[in-house]
Amino acid sequence: MTADPPRGTRLPGPEPPQPPPEVEQAALLGHIDDAVSLYVKFTEVDPETARQVVERLADG
Question: Are 47 and 31 in contact (CB under 8 A)?
């Protein structure tokens, strides 16, 4: 059984695409679900990856 990596640790694999300005703005305004939807729409990544990216943006 393996433990989850500490928060803030990068997982192996390719870097997700750079979020467009609309996604960054929505995340910074606290509209997390909207930002996730936009990120999925613009970049075609899976929703889990999109949520991780958006949450990092929102945390600043």
Answer: no
pLDDT tier for residue 1 given thresholds of 50, 70 and 90: very low
pLDDT digits (tens, 9 = 90+) for 13-41: 788 999 999 999 999 999 999 999 999 99
Q: Write the DSSP assignment of 10-59 as a string of letters.
A: PPSSPPPPPPPHHHHHHHHTT-HHHHHHHHHHHH---HHHHHHHHHHHHT
Q: Cβ of 37: how many Cβ atoms within 10 Å?
A: 16
25 token code pair = 């703005």
